[in-house]
Amino acid sequence: MNLANIKVIKEILEKNQTFAKKHFGQNFLVDQNVLNRITETAEITPEDDIVEIGPGLGVLTQELAQKAHSVKTIEIDRNIIPILEENLQTLTKEEYKKIEIINQDALKYEPTFENYKVVANIPYNITSPLITHFLTQKNKPSSLTLLVQKEVAEKLTTLEPDMTVLSLQTALYAEAKYVKKVPPSCFFPSPKVDSAIIKITLRSPQDKNFVPEETAKKILQIAKIAFSNRRKKLSNTLRNLKNPKTDLPITPEELLQVSEKSNLDFARRPETLSVKEWQALAENL
């Protein structure tokens, strides 16, 4: 069954008297070239265990089942699951056996197996929390290959001097790469914005840019305060920090000492700091 064909999708929806639900972010992918680029970017092998988020009608699920060792696909919309199961029946028995459909909120899903990859056309309204969920949980994936809103893809892959909290968080745990722009015409129904494929590759402890978990958490705590007002300088926003030893608001004198020890000019704004500079700041607080 060609689930990348708009006519086929319309027939399936009409047959089942249903529609793409906006509150679930359902925009079905209808471009085989984009599907191919997603699976190529994910570098799927026959040994790979895959987690897919939001399978919808199963267009990407089919591709994953043909290439991977197993596919756990997480779908929050229980009403679409019977349709998904029926669509996947067109796979071979061996391919179909690889798939496990889980009716759950992806933000609450925690894989019990290791060395997995996330590959998904994700609902745009949960992009940031979903990436945060997988980057910060104990059992992290080796990579995430995602189709997301283009604006978010650009922000996520942009570091200093235009860094955001999300791009900093991603950079602390992984390397993020912008792969390809995907226009609205590649979906049904068509969204109002461009999309993009990104790949986030998690760093191993052997990586020279690896940041220990506790350090990453501390940096993010500081960053959320520093980014609370992007227009303000660090000297202003960091005044809201507390001294970890006394649990009292940090004094101007203490802030000056941190600036000197970190070799940072606090007249700068948070988006201009590199990951290494954030590490220096965290180490000296």
What does this protein structure show overall?
The chain is of the alpha/beta class. It has twelve helices and nine strands. It has helices at residues 6-15, 32-42, 59-67, 81-88, 93-97, 127-136, 150-156, 165-173, 213-226, 234-237, 252-262, 275-283, and strands spanning 28-29, 49-53, 70-75, 99-103, 116-121, 143-149, 174-182, 187-188, 195-202. It has two domains: 6-202, Rossmann fold (3-Layer(aba) Sandwich); 213-283, Orthogonal Bundle (Helicase, Ruva Protein, domain 3). The model has no long low-confidence stretch (mean pLDDT 91). The strands form two sheets. It has a seven-stranded mixed sheet with strand order 4-3-2-5-6-9-7, with helices on both faces. Strand 2, helix 3 and strand 3 (70-75) form a beta-alpha-beta unit. Helix 8 (165-173) packs antiparallel against helix 9 (213-226).
Task: Tell me the strand order in the biggest sheet.
Answer: 4-3-2-5-6-9-7
Count of alpha/pi helices: 12
CATH superfamily of the largest domain: Vaccinia Virus protein VP39
The count of DSSP E runs of length 2 or more, i.e. the number of strands, is 9
Q: What is the 3D form?
A: elongated
CATH-defined architecture of the largest domain: 3-Layer(aba) Sandwich
- The percent range for strand residues is 15-25%
State the assembly state of the protein chains. Answer: single chain
